[in-house]
Amino acid sequence: MTPYEQVLAELPAEIVVNDKDIINGYTTDFRKKYTGESPALLRPRSTEEVTSIVKLCTLHSVALVPVGGNTGYCGGATPDVSGQQLLISLQRMNKIREVDADNLSITVDAGCILAEIHEAAEQENLMFPLSLGSQQSCQIGGNISTNAGGVSAVRYGITRDLVLGLEVVLPDGQVLSNLSPLRKDNRGYALHQLLIGAEGSLGIVTGASLRLFLPAASRVTAFLAINEISDLMPLLAKAQRYTGEAVTSFEYISGASLDLLFASKPELRRPIQTPSEHFVLIEAASSSPVLGLDQAIEAFFEDGMSGETIVDGVIATSEQQRQDFWNLREHIPEGEVLNGGSVKHDVSVRISDMARFIELGSDLVHRYGQGARLSVYGHVGDGNVHFNVLAPEGAESPAYLDEVSAKVSPCIYDLVAKLDGSFSAEYGLGQDKLPLDQIYGDPLKRHLMGKIKDVLDPNKVMNPGKVVGSQICDLS
Ligand SMILES: Cc1cc2nc3c(=O)[nH]c(=O)nc-3n(C[C@H](O)[C@H](O)[C@H](O)COP(=O)(O)OP(=O)(O)OC[C@H]3O[C@@H](n4cnc5c(N)ncnc54)[C@H](O)[C@@H]3O)c2cc1C
């Protein structure tokens, strides 16, 4: 028997899926960039069953690849091509364990879909703010393991800021658990923080305690056309001052991204007819019904119009109109796909450098991109932008993108490095960004990550080949 066959033979048959059609649903990543092979998908029903699986895999040195909703953008949940790695999904561990209104917290199984956590909080008239375009299918275990960002981070922070405690099955089978609503707990290292963003390389997250907030009692959403890219971030600062920091989302959408979308989906309607190269979707919310948010946003809007920062804009007057604005934002990636796909750069720079990055990066693409088209959009309120390059209209996309990305991507990443930014703002490293980490990453950080991996997972069972690579970085 091979080592993985030994593991499978010792597990209860009800948690082992051998059906190739089902397994194949998990062996290609969301972007269809990576395809691996796996002999089985394990679907435990409890933390105890996860423990048994992990112990057996460590005993027999069989690699285990955790998969959540498989919406990740870096191939982190895709097994390699050896056909020896087992997949583990927590889809059957999807219970809301407790909503604790007194402590503004919720404790959940890691297999819960993000949208289900939103619903559970709403039923108690509370709110969990993590919000992503993939929320109907991504799992909180995946969100935690990628330290997901999303559209509300400008106000509520990223996943790291929303997790109070975790339950994790470590590679040796021990269960590290601090599922507690405590806001303050300084008893030594915050070990659960180490697991956030670890992409399954240090253990399996089986449960989480998360922060809840009061829901919005008033909310204003506006779609704005702005004059110049240099107006972008001062506009955020202004909006924050006018609304008393009530801004929850500040999303940039380039005119080019919108044009791509409307060219491929003519049924969608433009919220603003005035032509512009730059648009902003801004949302502000308050849990206080007495704040006067409407008046604050209107005053901000008038100030922006009179200062010629805002060229045109529309404030949503109904929930339907608000949804329409968000619908446009969420469909931007689809617009790229329908136009032949793109080479993606998910980067971050200081908020104060955002406009400069977009300008300089666009110049680079125009200079070296041989007619490439650009689609730039994203969570600029957090200094994070998706800077994506498309083939010229009518060009053979895949071949063109391969050729051009080899020339243009290094220029873009060099620019990000010069601005002291990050080549991976919110999607993680997975297997996709490991080569970039070799070039732009900090060798000491990589060395320490390798050491930590070595201590916790000496047999290299947990998601090998992702995040830390396969070898400890040599500092000599
Ligand atoms: C339309 C769309 C919009 C998106 N928008 C955003 C966005 O705004 N912000 C953002 O940050 N991301 C975004 N993403 C990317 C993606 O949704 C996130 O990275 C998400 O957090 C991944 O969750 P998942 O459950 O799909 O994880 P998967 O893709 O299944 O896995 C991701 C990683 O986590 C590991 N993992 C999964 N579950 C566990 C577990 N229980 N224990 C240990 N490791 C685990 C996997 O091994 C893998 O390394 C978007 C994706 C799509 C398709």
Automatic annotation (TrEMBL):
The keyword Flavoprotein applies. Pfam families: FAD-oxidase_C (PF02913), FAD_binding_4 (PF01565). Residues 34-215 form the FAD-binding PCMH-type domain. Keywords: FAD, Flavoprotein. It comes from the Bacteria. Belongs to the FAD-binding oxidoreductase/transferase type 4 family. This is FAD-linked oxidase. It comes from Phaeobacter inhibens. The lineage of its organism: Bacteria, Pseudomonadati, Pseudomonadota, Alphaproteobacteria, Rhodobacterales.
